[in-house]
Amino acid sequence: MSKLPKENQFLDLSDYGRPFAKVIAQSLKDTSFTPIHVTIAFVISGLIAIACILNHYYWATAFFLVLKSILDAADGELARIKNTPSYTGRYLDSVSDIILNLLILMTIWYVTDESLALTILAFFGIQLQGTLYNYYYVILRNKHNGDTTSRVFENKTPKALKGEKQSNVNILFRLYTLSYGVFDKIIYKMDAKAVEAQKLPNWFMTAVSTFGLGFQLLLIGIMLALDLKQYIIPFFIGYSIFILVFIAIRRLINR
Fold first, then answer.
1. Which CATH architecture has domain 6-253?
2. R_g over Cα of the chain
3. Which residues cross the membrane (predicted)?
4. Neighbour count for residue 36 (Cβ, 10 Å)
5. Among residues 11, 69, 125, 207, which is most buried (max CB within 10 A)?
6. Which among 180, 203, 204, 218 is positioned nearest to 14, based on CA atoms?
7. Where do the domains of the chain lie?
């Protein structure tokens, strides 16, 4: 199942693992495995990738980063197949992502000669990139009756869905807002009128999907495997300039 109606689907460069994710989800459809179990699996894969970086096994790192991205898609696929959407899964997924992102970049800092300040700057850049992509994607999904577990404005604790506890939603929502709140506010301030956008063309969303976490992890894995680890931090700092570029294009499209 897709997050968007067929006519609004675009080539998502960050979602290369979706076909494999669907196979995994289908294989787990009639088992006791839940989307939360798959989320835990992608966290484990991310931690193994970090251990590989520390031990300089960079091809193995690339493998586990790609596997993490596949499993990251598989938890949502399994939720849709089993018809068990949940805010618990949605926020656990996001909080796990941001923690792993920070740990991955800090590990890269540890094995290179890059400065800690630039590493933190790269982390903020990566998060702002991902937030812009998610912002536009959620707007598109809400506009075209797609998956709506994610909301354009995450400013109020949602009511627990069937099968989940409100207390779990409350805790994870607080963690989510602590983790992502500043990034959400910055992107909204930069492009507040995006929620009124009449057009978010497929080609534009494909371009913005290079900001998606899956594509970011793929680039990190490739750069590590090619022994370009010293360029990872500078690259993501520099690539952040495209945040302004994409916002400018979005405004031109909808002027």
1. Up-down Bundle (1.20)
2. 18
3. 36-59, 91-110, 116-136, 203-225, 231-249
4. 19
5. 69
6. 218
7. 6-253
